[in-house]
User: Fold this.
Amino acid sequence: NGGVLVYGLPWVRRVPLALARWMGDLGYRNRPLALSYIFLFFFGIPLLLLLLTGTLDTTAPSATDGRSRSSLRIDHSTRAPDPREVTHVR
Assistant:
């Protein structure tokens, strides 16, 4: 998808390299700006997206109904019902 676009066209291959070189030079000249960039893109934006989507909302009902994830157990002993044990209600 994106890799085909970048590696498929020779002139587009130089764009990510040029941007990385530019960001590296900018970070070398201005360290607080580089640290701000890292904080913003790796912590700030993901946290903002989590807050906007409600993923970090503690008031939302839990899928575990208040139980911790470790207390959930899955019953893997499924078997076909015995026809003699099935009762029909009329």
In short: The chain is about 55% helix and 0% strand. The radius of gyration is 27 Å. The mean pLDDT is 78.
